[in-house]
Amino acid sequence: MLPISKMAAAVQPSATLAAGAKARQLKTEGKIVFDFSLGEPDFNTPKHICEAGYKAMLDGHTHYTAAAGIAELRGSIVRWYKRTYGYEFSPEQVIVSNGAKHSLHNALAATVGPGDEVIIPTPYWVSYSDLVQMTGASYVLVPTSEESGFKMTPAQLRAAVTPRSKLVMLNSPSNPTGSVYTRAELEELADVALETKLGVISDEIYEQLVFGSAKATCFATLRPGLAESTITISGVSKSYAMTGWRMGWAIAPLPITKAMANVQSQETSNPSSISQYAAIAALEGDQVCVETMRQEFEARRDLTCQRLRALPGIRCPIPDGAFYAFFNVASYFGKTLKGRKVTNSTSFCAAALETVHVNLVQGSAFGVEGYVRLSFATSRAQINQGIDKLAEFLQC
Ligand code: PMP
Ligand code: GLU
Questions:
Q1: Which numbered atom of ligand 1 lies nearest the CA of 103?
Q2: Ligand nearest to the CA of 206
Q3: What is the pLDDT of residue 13?
């Protein structure tokens, strides 16, 4: 008999990927599903980026590359941060991985282990807790609330620090809430991190998807010396509609990038050579595609929030970034909807999927009860039809 390790036994399947798989299954059974589960752009990758991938194949860039990624792409990443934030670092401080999720794994694997604590404000992206656990470290959740805009205060961060704390994980713009910390709010968190000698993993994957007057901030640049204790995570998946290409990166102080590259070299070797060339085209090419998609996401955000806010018993804060509405459905708990008893976010989502084929993700997967997440990375027609169905579901 084959054993299952303690680590693998403790890992939960990704709730977002599981929700996406459920919708796919129903679709193969011929059902019409209004799928708002997966957080991935519905747009195809822009043509010039696909062409760069195709050209890379024809040019013979089909071999192993340096484990941390090709010099050209690491150079493109260096230039992008200098151009965008004035953040300067060397190409050796960049490590390219198979998606930002892999970058997060490598960052955690290189920095923490048994006995260490990682602070995570809730609601948090589903994978953070399991990725921490896989290293043997434990996570400490800091609950935030709708009233505080789902943002952790400096006092909360300070109170969560113990002698075992090694890292805090920040994510602005946030998945699942769409909250965007202001520069001033992040500066205050940065000061606590510096005072308490806490390392920071700043997941900035939604940085190019901000709405209205909201602005993304590159955390590492906020204070002199802060980059020495920060790992910046980002990638092309969301901004360039490249989820399937699996391209993410981390920027860190040299000893950390070196450790991450060692982990990666033993684990997966290099990320896909073809995707790396496509990512260069994404970062160096025409950026109009990013703005076009951002504008469409903003229009969908407005539509989604306006429609959800018109539903009885729903509270929907307006997200300032990413492509998720995280709305409160707790007033329906204890009620029977379409013949199904709803007691929490999980039973709410299960009932909505089974009865009206609207696929949402339960708030509990993100560490908070009472809410559900709707990804509006789908067409306006789908949003309208799906919310019509949701309205039908809520008529108890
Ligand atoms: N961080 C956050 C907050 C995310 O929502 C996601 C989801 N895709 C990732 C990281 C991982 O991105 P990737 O697809 O590049 O692995
Ligand atoms: N991050 C996306 C989401 O939250 C994609 C799924 C995943 O990587 O877990 O839906």
A1: 16
A2: 1
A3: 86
List, chain by chain if needed, residues with CB within 6 Å of any ligand 1 atom: 39, 99-101, 125, 171, 175, 203, 205, 235, 237, 243, 248
Domains, the chain, in order of start with CATH, read 6-44+289-393 (3.90.1150.10), 47-284 (3.40.640.10)
> Which of 394, 375, 387 minimizes the C-alpha distance to 176?
375
Task: Please write the tens of the pLDDT for every residue from 154-200.
Answer: 999 999 999 999 999 999 999 999 999 999 999 999 999 999 999 99
Average pLDDT of the chain to the nearest whole number = 97
Taking 50 as the pLDDT cut, the residues of the chain under it are none
pLDDT at position 266 is 96
Question: Is the Cβ atom of 40 under 6 angstroms away from ligand 2?
Answer: yes
Q: Which candidate, 155, 168, 159, places its Cα nearest to that of 230?
A: 168
Tell the residue nearest (CA) to atom 2 of ligand 2.
39
Q: Which ligand is nearest to the CA of 126?
A: 2
Reading the block at residue 382, the tokens are: 């789908």
Question: Cα Rg for the chain, rounded, in angstroms?
Answer: 21
Question: Residue 283: CB within 6 Å of ligand 2?
Answer: no
Query: Whose CA is closest to 329, among 358, 303, 300?
Result: 358
What region does 253 belong to: left with phi over 0, alpha with psi -120 to 50, or beta? beta
Structure confidence at residue 17 (pLDDT): 87
CA of 137 to the centre of ligand 1 (A): 21
99 lines ligand 2 (CB under 6 A): no
State which of 127, 209, 349, 373 you would mutate to test the pocket of ligand 2, scoring each by most atoms of that ligand within 8 A of its C-beta.
127
Indicate whether this model's pTM tops 0.90: yes
Residue 107's pLDDT is 98
Distance 205 CA to ligand 1 centre (A): 7
